[in-house]
Amino acid sequence: EKLFFARTSFIMSGSARARIADSSKESVNAKKMEAKHTAPSPPVKKNLVLAKKSFSPSKPTSPHINVYVCGLTHGVMVMRTEKSNKKNVEGYVQPLKNKCMEDINFASSLDIVKIVNQREDPETNLPKKQATSYNCCLFVNIVAEEENTFEMRKKWVQGIIDCLNSHLLDFQYRQDFRFKADETEMVEGKIDGKLDSYLIDEDIGGILGRFVYDDVESVINDMNTVRNIFESQQNRENCSEILSRFWHHWN
Question: At residue 17, does pLDDT exceed 70?
């Protein structure tokens, strides 16, 4: 009987332990379930500063046409255009070209003395090509050398920009022309860009012969003047041939 009681006690004690273990597991599981269904902490909001609020456009801005100006030696100024979203592709300026060719007074009102092809580089006497394979175009003006300042160049191109953005020209589709930059090279406060950095030989001779110097011989025989015209050493050595050939090209 004692042995049976001892065994029974042992068995009961084991059952109790099993129940305690099960109860403990249930308690842990209950806590996990409770934690799982507990709502998370609300997100932290930013402090809204009204001064920093700004309008957010629903679509990107339309591409526009950048306008560049450059001052060269001898009072020469040149203007070029380029699409803001396409490198080395000009804006459509054919209506302005046509109007200048048809009406000299209109061109004069904008201080455009010539529309020419832009030069590839000082060493290459060829028109620069756009990515579209068309020649790059330059609008040319000339002033007294001391008047070839940033303010004067900006004023000149702004007048052309205003015209391009107005309804004076017959554009099938309107474009937005904007002044972008002055590309003038300066050294010690003076314009350093030579004519052969932008103009091909025929236009160098033409503009000098029509607006700047009385005779070609005095220019050819003055090396300081030659160096002020040409950046390329080869062009300097061939200046007599270049200038003599094209001296009356613009007349």
Answer: no
